[in-house]
């Protein structure tokens, strides 16, 4: 073991070492505090991460461990660990304020494994780009490979770092009273860049009186002076100035006569980049179908 060339055993040991290091971090400093990574910190971290990937590639011939990172013997064990942790996440109840397995998105072992996979992806992508830098016509044979891997890398990194800038707030609106304050999950008050006034709460019921549809007719005032009259209902949000406004709840005791509507406001400025990565992967799948042919590994 640890004799060159490294194999799958070393790959599993590296992944296991990252999980162990993650557990030690979880015990010593607690879960990942994503709020500390909000913009511009996450932008700086992303730039530094890309720089580290480039340095690893440049030094791969001098440091054997760096060369190993770009091989399938490192990638397969890392993917197995990632799948195991993801399955655990799917089988356990996830909560924003949860600890350990109940909040996997802030669980150090989970984060470190996915960071490791992103580094591996980065090495593979750079290798493939440099192989074909002087052969444009051969590139079409591997365009699906590049789109899939670049898309996955972009979606993973931006979804992770963008989590720090995502806001999910609740706003309690009362009929006839403009509201510009919202609440975080910890009941902290946040002043919004938009004001919302409830004009009318609408509910349609079944014969037994249970709600079939409920929605809110609202007026939205923006800082730019726009005055928007619209309707928000379940699964049909309204988007204004980067905020998606969802119908969340109402005064259940008043039912159809409710004078209060609870709205959920969500802002995720990194989401377009995540979607770009997903569309790239879809494009890679289409290219795979169109071009066909043999793929190089």
Any overview of this molecule?
The chain is an alpha+beta fold and 297 residues long. The chain is built from eight helices and eight strands, in the order αααααααββββββββα. The strands form two sheets. The protein has a four-stranded antiparallel sheet, with no helix packed on it. Strands 2-3-4-5 form a four-stranded antiparallel sheet, with no helix packed on it. A hairpin with a 4-residue loop joins strand 4 and strand 5 (227-233). The chain is elongated, with a radius of gyration of 24 Å. The mean pLDDT is 88.
Summarize the structure.
The chain is α+β, with helices and mostly antiparallel strands.
Question: How many beta strands in the DSSP annotation?
Answer: 8
Q: Number of DSSP helices?
A: 8
Strands in their spatial order, largest beta sheet = 1-8-7-6
SSE order, as H and E?
A: HHHHHHHEEEEEEEEH
Overall residue-averaged pLDDT value: 88
Radius of gyration computed on alpha carbons: 24 Å
Termini gap: 25 Å
**Shape annotation:** elongated
| Percent helix range | 40-55%
Low-pLDDT segments: none
Biggest β-sheet strands, sense, barrel: 4 strands, antiparallel
Q: Please state the structural category.
A: alpha+beta
Strand content: 15-25%
What is the chains' assembly state?
single chain
Secondary-structure map with pairings?
Layout: H1 8-29, H2 41-58, H3 64-69, H4 72-91, H5 108-131, H6 136-139, H7 143-162, E1 167-174, E2 179-183, E3 189-205, E4 211-222, E5 227-233, E6 238-240, E7 243-250, E8 260-267, H8 271-291
Antiparallel strand pairs: 1-8, 2-3, 3-4, 4-5, 6-7, 7-8
């Amino acid at each position: 073991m640890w004799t060159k060339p490294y194999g799958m055993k070393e790959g599993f040991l590296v992944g296991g070492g990252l999980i162990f290091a993650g557990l030690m971090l979880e015990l010593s400093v607690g879960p990942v505090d994503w709020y500390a990574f909000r913009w511009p910190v996450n932008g700086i971290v992303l730039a530094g991460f890309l720089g580290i990937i480039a340095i690893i590639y440049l030094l791969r011939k001098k440091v054997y461990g760096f060369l190993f990172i770009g091989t399938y013997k490192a990638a397969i064990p890392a993917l197995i660990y990632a799948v195991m942790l993801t399955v655990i996440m799917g089988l356990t109840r996830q909560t924003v304020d949860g600890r350990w397995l109940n909040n996997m998105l802030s669980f150090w072992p989970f984060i470190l494994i996915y960071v490791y996979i992103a580094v591996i992806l980065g090495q593979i992508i750079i290798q493939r780009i440099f192989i074909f830098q002087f052969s444009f016509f051969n590139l079409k044979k591997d365009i699906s490979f590049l789109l899939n891997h670049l898309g996955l890398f972009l979606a993973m990194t931006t979804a992770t770092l963008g989590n720090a800038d995502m806001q999910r707030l609740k706003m309690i609106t009362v009929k006839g009273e403009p509201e510009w304050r919202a609440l975080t999950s910890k009941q902290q008050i946040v002043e919004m860049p938009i004001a919302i006034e409830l004009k009318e709460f609408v509910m349609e019921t079944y014969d037994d009186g249970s709600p079939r549809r409920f929605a809110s007719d609202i007026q939205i005032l923006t800082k730019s002076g726009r005055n928007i009259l619209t309707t928000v209902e379940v699964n049909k949000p309204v988007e204004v100035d980067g905020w998606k406004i969802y119908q969340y709840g109402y005064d259940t005791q008043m039912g159809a006569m409710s004078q209060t509507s609870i709205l959920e406001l969500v802002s995720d400025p990194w989401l377009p980049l995540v979607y770009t990565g997903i569309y790239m992967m879809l494009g890679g799948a289409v290219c795979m179908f169109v071009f066909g042919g043999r793929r190089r590994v």
